[in-house]
Design brief:
The protein is of the alpha+beta class. The protein has nine helices and 16 strands. It has one domain: 4-Layer Sandwich (Double-stranded beta-helix). It is globular.
Length: 394
């Protein structure tokens, strides 16, 4: 199961995506662009509120048709990596610590630090997509895997809250009940392409469902390029933004709907970033009784139609022992509906991380405001079912 010492899978970018500014950095067979920051989108001193409409040339603007399959974006753990992760777990147990109590010294893995920094660079400045494969799911318990996964994640960013429950290591499994409106990561329903919170989203597959649950990814940068090339007039409402429903998980200073528009696309300090949760936009319209303008609706429809195209999407099934990491601001993700096993011990489960990179990605004000500094607002509740009567915590 464990890959040998030559287990790095080639992640060489498709020539169409490569910028000459990059020089390739090679570690055995693993190839990525890791010579500093890419020049993203023109001049960096433009007003962050301006509508940007230039076609971007960057590794993150990939299309699914650029990839032959998961091998193209995979990094396989070998015995050195696994030994480092085992040592973290041993230190955690010796100190009696859970994931949120681990110190930097206890999560340190100096023997593989250089490679992990290269992976982080690929996420933040490269294509924004990695599959880290070979997690020892048959060797470690779920708790041990959580500790190891958390430790590796600390090299990419700081774990933040994923719900009002305060969970920083999320358990992606179906706990939904008939007649309730549960958060997507705690249900079996099909999810639309969307973004999560903060810079990096990680998912480690422990167990698959009986059927279904296919991962779908799409580059929001490629979607932007398609709109800029065909309907640049519709970029304006996407840059101006939309109000969002909080799904009952608002911070104390907010009502049921954001008091400000959240840009789908925002550009700051030379970085173009995307936030897209279409369902919450429509929920906000229903809550307020204010319909979208024709231009706003057309822009959302075009964005969604492009995202669903076969040449745009990259699809694969996340196998047990595989962890996906994506740049949340350059990529959308979703999964198909799934049918689970009847036996509780066999049911689908993934571990999720939301990570704030250090330094975090530059965002326009209302994008940063929407996501906050430490993930979702924590109010002490013990479930994530949407209750339309729930009020903001005072």
């Amino acid at each position: 199961m464990v890959a040998n010492s030559e287990s790095f899978v080639n992640i060489q970018s498709n020539h169409r995506l490569m910028l000459q500014w990059f020089a390739p950095c090679k570690h055995r067979r693993f190839t990525m662009n890791c010579r500093g920051r890419a020049p993203w989108y023109g001049h960096e001193d433009n007003d962050m509120t301006d509508v940007f409409s230039e076609i971007i040339d960057h590794p993150s603007a990939w299309k699914g048709s650029d990839f032959a399959g998961p091998d193209d974006v995979a990094f396989d753990l070998d015995e050195r990596h696994l030994d480092a992760l085992r040592a973290v777990v041993a230190r955690a147990y010796a100190a009696g610590r859970g994931i949120q109590d681990l110190t930097d010294a206890e999560t340190a893995m100096p023997e593989i630090e250089a490679e992990l920094k290269d992976l982080r660079h690929e996420l933040m400045e490269g294509r924004g997509l990695l599959l880290v494969r070979g997690w020892p799911i048959d060797e470690m318990t779920d708790e041990e895997l959580g500790l190891a996964y958390w430790a590796l994640g600390t090299y990419f960013g700081r774990g933040v809250s994923q719900s009002p429950m305060g969970d920083r290591l999320g358990y992606v499994t179906d706990v939904s009940k008939p007649g309730t409106q549960e958060r997507g990561y705690r249900s079996s329903k099909e999810l639309n392409l969307h973004t999560d919170s903060d810079d990096i989203v990680g998912l480690l597959c422990i167990r698959q469902a009986k059927s279904g649950g296919e991962s779908r990814l799409a580059s929001s940068m490629a979607i932007y390029n398609e709109i800029a090339a065909t309907r640049p007039d519709l970029l304006k409402p996407l840059f101006q933004g939309y109000t969002y429903h909080w799904f009952g998980e608002q911070p104390p200073d907010q009502g049921a709907v954001t008091s400000y528009p959240v840009p789908v696309f925002g550009r700051h300090d030379g970085y173009l970033s995307c936030i897209f949760l279409r369902e919450f936009i429509h929920m906000a319209c229903e809550e307020t009784g204010v319909a979208l303008t024709d231009e706003q609706a057309e822009a959302l429809t075009l964005f969604g139609d492009i995202a669903e195209r076969d040449d745009i999407q990259f699809r694969f099934r996340l196998e047990p022992g595989w962890a996906s990491f994506i740049n949340n601001y350059t990529m959308l993700h979703s999964r198909t509906a799934f049918v689970d096993w009847e036996e509780l011990e066999k049911r689908r489960m993934l571990l999720r991380l939301w990570l704030k990179a250090q330094p975090s990605r530059p965002l326009v004000d209302n994008q940063r405001r929407y996501y906050g500094d430490d993930g979702m607002f924590v109010d002490g509740r013990t479930e994530t079912v949407f209750d339309p009567n729930r009020q903001a915590v005072e």
